[in-house]
Amino acid sequence: MRAAVLHETGQDKLEVLDDVEAVGFGPGKVRIRVRATGLCHSDVSAMNGVLPQPAPFVPGHEGAGEVLDVGDGVTAVAPGDRVLLCWLPSCGQCPSCKRGQTQLCLAGFMNAGTPNFKRPSGDVFGFAGTGTFAEEVVVDAGCAVPIPDDVPFDIAALIGCGVTTGLGAAVNTADVAAGSSVAVIGCGGVGISAIQGARLKGAAEIVAVDPVASRREAALRFGATEAVAPDGLADAKQRLTAGEGFDYVFEVVGKSATARTAYETTRRGGTLCVVGAGAMDDHLQLNMFELFFDEKRILPSMYGGGDVLRSYERAIALWRSGRIDLENLITHRVPLAEINDALEQMRTGTALRTCIEI
User: Fold this and answer.
1) Distance between CA atoms of 195 and 242, rounded to whole angstroms?
2) pLDDT digits 0-9 by tens, 328-346
3) Secondary structure element (H or E) that encloses residue 218, with its range
4) E-assigned strands of the chain?
5) 102-106 long-range contacts, Cβ below 8 Å, gap at least 24?
6) pTM: predicted TM-score of the whole model, two decimal places
7) Residue range 56-110, pLDDT digits in tens
């Protein structure tokens, strides 16, 4: 079958090969025919080594498709079912799961160290234990989440990561208060979803911050009340908050420099929500006096900060009712053979989300 493979960490292009085989099928496993997958910035971060991932590997973790076969003991799905892929399934038994923090379950991460694929030359891993830039993938049964028939594969794929992450950051983690002021730094697919979440929660002012003009324009269509380039953020803070700072600031880039800017843009007693996934050697510096004196809440948000299955259901309900716009998050569509075009669209900021149709 065909799959897009990164041979070595640090390479900036993928090679689409037709000699890849999905492996690992057996008890407790599900084989899925991938129909649509989104390109998430985390895929690029894994490619360049910001996020740890063994290589060679097939990127992609934001996917949806049809169940081809199920292993012994699998009862939640059956061949023919339409599913989205959950890259961080919960085990239901660990301390995090028992506390109700299923998004912190580490069971899914254990899959990242087991090859999902193989080629004649050897084993190939799947990013985050999945690897959706492939025609087929074998995953644990918990990764295959049934979706209703009226949810298209491309919409389901977005819900599998970017939408759940951004929407949940505003709704679950930060729990944005009605009438509040919000700034979102980084307005790709996840940032736009955070903007939609803040709008749903009733924020009075939502300032979108991004260096790319097309993304700023898009942010206004999705609910931002104002959109500025990074060098305009200080002026927006002064005009809209009299210099005090925003009630909530979302950092959706994953860099210490933007997180520091976000901290300085948050009012005293306000909330900084860190959504972007950054590198282990990129350190955010805060002095102990400001940490104590400003009493700003710093809230990291992992996969939307809540139970992902409930978050999926909520996103579908909001999409059905027209409360969130998911169709227009997909600004580009490419076949798997043109995956490197999708990577370029992300790196240049011309895409909110590119859907790879497989």
Assistant:
1) 22
2) 999 999 999 999 999 999 9
3) helix 213-221
4) 3-5, 15-17, 21-22, 29-38, 57-58, 62-70, 82-85, 117-119, 122-126, 136-140, 144-146, 181-185, 205-209, 226-228, 246-251, 266-274, 297-300, 330-335, 353-357
5) 102/307, 102/308, 102/309, 103/302, 103/303, 103/304, 103/305, 103/306, 103/307, 103/308, 104/302
6) 0.95
7) 999 999 999 999 999 999 999 999 999 999 999 998 899 999 998 998 998 877 7
